[in-house]
Amino acid sequence: MLKSKAIWLGFCSLVGSIGLNAQDCQLTLRGYVREEGTETPLAYASVFIREAGKSTSTDENGYFVLPNLCKNTAYTVEVRHLECAHFTEIVRIAETVEVCFHLHHDNTLPEVMVHEKAIVPRPSNAEVQVSAADLEATRGQNLGETLKRLPGVTLLNTGATISKPVIQGLHSNRIAIVNNGVALESQQWGSEHAPEIDPFAAEKISVVKGAAGVRYGVGAMAGAVVLEPAPLRETKGLGGWLSLGGFSNGRAGVAAGAADWHLPGKSLTFRLQGTAKRSGNLRAPDYFLGNTGALELNFSALAGWKSAHWKHEISASQFSQRIGILRSAHVGNLTDLQLAIDSPTPLNNRDEFSYELLRPYQTVQHQTLKYKAVLRLSDRWKLSNQYSFQYNNRREYDVVRSTGSAATKAQVAFRLWSNTLDAALEHLPIRNWQGGIGVQAVQQTNFVSKGGFIPDYQSFGGGIWAVERWRKFPGPWEFEIGLRYDFRQTHATTDGNFVDLDTIVRFGNVSGTAGILYHAGQYWTFSLNTGQAWRPPHVNELFARGVHHGAGTYEEGSPTLLPEKAWNTNLSARFERNRWSAMATFYRNSIRDFIYLDPSLNAVLTVRGAFPAYYYRQAEQAVLQGFDGNFSIPLPKGFAVEGACSLLRGQRKTPNAETQFDWLPLMPADRFQYGFRWGHKQGYLRLSANTVRRQTRIPEAGLLKAAPNGFTVLNFDAAHTFLIFKDKKPLEIGLTLQNLGNTRYREYLNFFRYYADEPGLNLGLRAKFTF
Amino acid sequence: MIHNTKIAVRNFLFVLMAAGLFVAGCKDDDITVEENITKVEVQITGGGIDKKFAWEDADGDGGNAPTIETITLLPNVAYSAHIHVYDGATEINDEIEGESNDHLFTFTVTGANLTVSELNTDANGAPFGLESRWTSAASSTGTVNIKLYHEPTDKSNASNPGGDVDFDVTFPVQIQ
């Protein structure tokens, strides 16, 4: 046995233990790449033998095979993993035996090792990942808060508690949220319908920007938020974590925990995870925001087991939430709305602290069931099958007469059942090509209560895709190509107070992606990706009819809409060296048949007065282009200066020959983040500022209320990890201070900017114990 | 291995069927009750007449436009007006009267020579307005706007009492 240890630039070290047997050039080097200590297999690590010009990647079990090697020859083996740059080791092969490379992560590096499960490589699109430190620092807050520090990602808010991610200006039905391999299916068409995701269940959250339809389906026309849970425990015994947190604003408390149990003598692991959260009225600098509390209770259970060729994973999760809506935001008609808008302080506001959740509020439950089975067909090929079931139950409770028949009931209910079946045949590199093909089938049933803005529908769909990526190690070039066809059929029906509707619409189209990556030396990576993606118009765009109270508008769908087709190109440069890092992405997203709400000049008369009418229309083209970037430059003594920025310009073509283009509504304003960070082995302090400029690029038709002024908000966060008990278990204590100066400000992309300021100072304290 | 695959396929089908059962028979509307006001009626009595004038939008917001009747009155008569509020075929006056403290009807006359006064009062003695006195003068035409406020914060300020508007309807008025 041969043992060696090497440290590469303090990032990663690799321990290889090799024993080999001989027969001329018929030897096979096979084995595992694992994380040191936990023995977690490292998937998608590339293993390259320079002299033989052979390369491969580890599969999901960290396993690799390199055949046809010669006896007693010195080979330079390079092992690369996403986070670890590359490591080189010279080995002399004597016999065919399995080897084990142990890759371990240096403690000083804040990022956690990536455990890539799929063979099909990650997209060549611009991609950003929430750093482990940011993920921990935002624990206890909603998904939006977790994502908003990423360049190119902003939020669409309905108050502080309801937030939706916006990727490069687009959101809702134009992006996909993929949680544990399942694309979230809920009422995402609604701007006040936040994604039903518990960020505590995820260990890794990344955002893929641009057309990601080939990998994530028609929902991912403008990008995807991808959440992955921590891999199940691979070693025997019990392990997990417990997290407690408290926030001063809203007097919120959060408790979450997870435990993995790996059965002795079996390849079976269970996990139970849960989160409970309660918060009361938030406070803006000058007043409480009445009825803005929330209650949340989530749990998930996972089980995984393996046999010689099969790997099974079953998971079930439930997300349930009850969110109060600012009472001041409940307005009956346009006159009320104008009064609310003109008032400097919120009207009808109970300016006091309370945990009580009164009408208006909404409740949502989301259940997900998933079964995945992976069959290893050979050393190179595997077949994955996945079935997922989702049930989304949303109810909205309005302010009603307390003695009426409505007093105990919801006013609107949406229920959506989704069944999705996926199959994929994936392969490790064959002549340097790695990728797979797959099929997908989707079925959905949606029931909406009487008067629920959108009709009932039943939809069926399917897709077929193929993605391949070429790389010849250690060559600097990588190429990617992918193609997908999707089909959707939706049968929409209504009864009750809608005009009777019984219509079937069918849409089908092709998505494609092509990418080039160039690894310039060890530190630089350049990528160019261009892709086409599409999405069918959603039922709300086709058939909606009613008053949208939050916005004070009457909205009506158009049944003749065509699918939107996006052509997205992005160019990225990334630099990573020691503590230096920088990323820059330029993008252009051109969307043909862009669907938008067109303000017509007429008003619709309702029993609550006249409302301005908006109709869903298609613009010939909309173009969104911009720049996202971030950097971190180390200074002496553990200090670093950090920054990020997101710039975006969004326009649509108008038939008006003079102006030709009009600014799109609700486009994020220019946004800059900058600050200092001081870090050491077990902790860090960070002071950062967030400056948002006033949005001056607004549609010609004007806004109900002028865009809010620009603002700068200061934030502070710090964390320290203590090693406690004899066996040195980590206990992380963290502190966050949001809106340090208790600044009064309003966000352009928050619907409640009409009524109230954003929350003020918020002090958060958290502790996480890992066992 | 073929055997295993078969089992897997069977498993999938089973789960699919189980999920199908979930969906079956779920269409029930009794989980929600909407507060929809589809019709507002003004019942005018006095001067030898007892007539109802309706503002109705039977198919809800949008779609077909509401039908609005013109309130025709004789000059120089003091009428009693009584408002009837409907959700479809159901009159919801009892709900509104039961919470009279939390409701206020307001009347704004434009153009016509008509005075609305003597609004009836709620349980606390504050203005309510389900019943009122309408006094006509010389022949004229115009409109009367009737609003129902829910949870008003200041009942003494009829032009801006606060709260939400449950309905906001305008009738043409003809005095001849």
Topology:
The complex is a heterodimer of chains A (771) and B (176).
Chain A: E1 2-8, E2 12-18, E3 27-35, E4 46-49, E5 54-57, E6 63-69, E7 74-80, E8 86-92, E9 98-105, E10 127-129, H1 132-137, H2 143-147, E11 153-158, E12 162-167, E13 176-179, E14 182-183, E15 204-209, H3 213-216, E16 223-228, E17 237-247, E18 252-262, E19 268-279, E20 282-283, E21 288-289, E22 294-306, E23 310-324, H4 334-342, E24 361-376, E25 381-397, E26 412-430, E27 433-448, E28 456-471, E29 477-494, E30 501-520, E31 524-535, H5 539-543, E32 545-548, E33 553-556, E34 564-577, E35 580-606, E36 609-634, E37 639-653, E38 661-663, E39 671-680, E40 683-692, E41 711-724, E42 729-738, E43 762-770
Parallel strand pairs in A: 3-9, 13-16, 33-36
Antiparallel strand pairs in A: 1-2, 2-9, 3-6, 4-5, 4-7, 7-8, 10-15, 11-12, 13-14, 15-16, 17-18, 17-43, 18-19, 19-22, 20-21, 22-23, 23-24, 24-25, 25-26, 26-27, 27-28, 28-29, 29-30, 30-31, 31-34, 32-33, 34-35, 35-36, 36-37, 37-38, 37-39, 39-40, 40-41, 41-42, 42-43
Chain B: H1 2-23, E1 39-46, E2 49-56, E3 67-68, E4 71-73, E5 78-87, E6 90-91, H2 93-98, E7 103-110, E8 114-117, E9 131-136, E10 140-150, E11 164-175
Parallel strand pairs in B: 4-11
Antiparallel strand pairs in B: 1-2, 1-5, 2-3, 5-6, 5-9, 7-10, 8-9, 10-11
